[in-house]
Amino acid sequence: MNGDGPVFKKSRWGTNRYVYNADNPVGLALVVISTALGLVVLLLMENRVGPFAPTPEPTWHPPTSYVDVRPYEPLPQDPYGTTPTP
């Protein structure tokens, strides 16, 4: 390992991108840290914990007062009186 090299170096793939230089100790630390962080995020997603946890569904609870509940009132059998009586 040569600590004199740059932390980032140009990619050899022909693009104008920079990549971590694993020959530099700081670049190697960045490689290890970013890989570990990526694995932790993937595990959190897989197990659906942390920021990837689903929101809990609200639980049902009975009404707290009778104001919220309307009594059941059945409709009359013949509300308009159109059925002839026998």
Could you describe the 3D structure shown?
By secondary structure, the protein is α+β, with helices and mostly antiparallel strands. It has a domain at 8-52. Helices cover 27% and strands 7% of the residues. It has one helix and two strands, in the order E-E-H. It has one helix at 25-47; strands at residues 8-10, 18-20. A two-stranded antiparallel ribbon has the order 1-2. Strand 1 and strand 2 form a beta hairpin. The longest helix is centred in the middle third of the chain and has 23 residues, at 25-47. The chain is rod-shaped, with a radius of gyration of 35 Å. The N and C termini lie far apart (107 Å). The mean pLDDT is 82. The chain crosses the membrane at residues 26-45. This is Energy transducer TonB.
Supply the key terms.
single chain; 86 residues; alpha+beta; two-stranded antiparallel sheet; 2 strands; 27% helix; Energy transducer TonB
What global shape is seen? rod-shaped
In percent terms, what proportion of residues is strand? 5-15%
By helix and strand content, what is the structural category?
A: alpha+beta
| Helix fraction bin | 25-40%
The residue-averaged pLDDT reads 82
Unreliably modeled segments: none
Trace the largest sheet across and list its strands.
Answer: 1-2
Region (Disordered): 53-86
Keywords: Membrane, Transmembrane, Transmembrane helix
Transmembrane segments: 26-45
Protein name: Energy transducer TonB
